[in-house]
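Render this sequence as a predicted structure.
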Amino acid sequence: MPNTASAKKRLRQNETRRLRNRSARSSLRTQIRRVREAVKAGDASKAQSEFRIAQKSIDKAASHRLIHPNAAARTKSRLVKLVKTVD
């Protein structure tokens, strides 16, 4: 347990950030899953629209350093490739 006031504050900040990151990461994964499900269902228009939303959320996560920028680029690249197979 923290002893100093600054350590206590740091603990509170870490907890808040952990919960915020957890929520954001979960919604990011959900959006990526929706793209994959739309592709699997063979629905090209839905896959395309879900990809646009996913792309925005991936970029936002990378800019906030929730995920590494290279991981974001790799994920977007793989999703684009996947969406193009449905057309």
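Summary. The mean pLDDT is 96. The two ends are 56 Å apart (CA to CA).
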